[in-house]
Structure formats: structure tokens, C-alpha cells
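Hi Prof. W.,

I finally got the Leucine-rich melanocyte differentiation-associated protein-like prediction working! I wasn't sure whether to trim anything, so I left the full sequence exactly as given:
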Amino acid sequence: MTCLGTYVFMDKHCRQLSISDGSSGKQIDSLSLAYEDLFTMPYSVIQDYGFIIKHLDISHNVFSRNLQFLSEFDNLRSLNLDHNKIDETTVFPFMPNLELLWLNHNLIKNLYPFIKNLYKSIPNLKYLCLMGNEAAPSYLNGGSFFEYLQYRLFVLSWFPHLMHLDDRIVTDEQLLEAKRLFKRPLFENVIELPECIKDLHNKINIFSKPSILSDGQKISRGTNLII
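And this is what came out:
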């Protein structure tokens, strides 16, 4: 793993990590606000640190769906959101520079459409951790090996640039298998089947309407559909 992957977030009372080479003095690039019972980011923090922070630890808080403030951290490279209230309906803002994201021990129960939305928001992730969520089955939460493997390949099918998923390095073989198993757009059509079912009645009506021949005779088409 790179320095991002092994990065240890500092305590909020010791935030000055790096010293700039210039004469401007100390330069803060890392910030920890863990264990602060936060559900949103204080405006003063955004105003003072939004542009310079590269590594942000807001673990062990109560953040859920109100994450738009993250778009103010333009240079963010790594984000720790472990032990919050993130669920599958949470949508992140667009953060093309983010490379490391920890979401361990949240409330994510379903991978889809969460992973799809996550890819749209953070397309350049290299390190992702989802352990401790119901959507990430493993021996830790009673999941079988088959369930774990299916979960892993599904996530990799969305993030082909991942180098590390959970506690394991991503291999080329896994990426190839993920691409083979979860082809798109066919896979997306299958996943979104419940939405299609909502319109099934209309489709049946369309396909079951009788055709009228030139001599006025009617032929029923039936209702067999291929979805």
C-alpha cells in the first residue's frame, strides 16, 4: 500500500503534521474530528481548512446523508467515515481527487445502487473499506465465502482502479473475473428489474393488444415477455 493506504490519522489536538519547505511556517494538511458527536460539519472548519486539508478523519460521529459539505474540501485525498450512520441511500458529492475511503461499521445494507452512486461521485478510488456493513458479507458477520466473493467482485466491477478492498489487495485476476461476471449494461438492466416491474402491466397491455389484419381479422399476440 502507498502512504495513503498506511496513513494514520492524528488526534484532533495534534493536527499539524507536515512542515512546508517555504518560510510560511507550519502547514496543516490533516484534520481529525473523531468522537465529536457531529452530524454536520461546522462552517468555521470548512472556512478555515476546506482548501488545505488532504486527510480528514470524521469517524465515530453521526453523519448520515448530509455529506454535501465534503465538496468544499477540494484537495481531499483520504476520508475516514468509520462508525457513522451512512446507509445505502447516502449520496456523496463529486470528489474526483479522493483516493482512500473508509466506511467500516456503518448502516449499508444493500450494495445497489449505493456502489453505483459511489462510483459516480468518487470515480478514482484506490482504497476502499466497507467491512462491518451488512452489504459486505464476511466471516466477521456470518457471511459465507461465496457471498464474500460475490460482494468483492461486484464492487470491483464498478471500481476497476481499486488497489485495495477491505483487508486484501486487489489482483488482476479478480478484476478480470469481475468484468466477466458483471457486464454492463445487461447487468444494470437485471438489477433494476424491480423498477421495470412497475411498468409491467403497461407492457403486457401493449404486447397483448390484438393485431388487425387488412381484412379486418384480429390475431392475439399473447403476453410472453423477455426482460
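Helices lie at 43-49, 114-121, 145-158, 172-181, 186-191, 193-198, 200-208. Does that look reasonable to you?

Thanks,
D.
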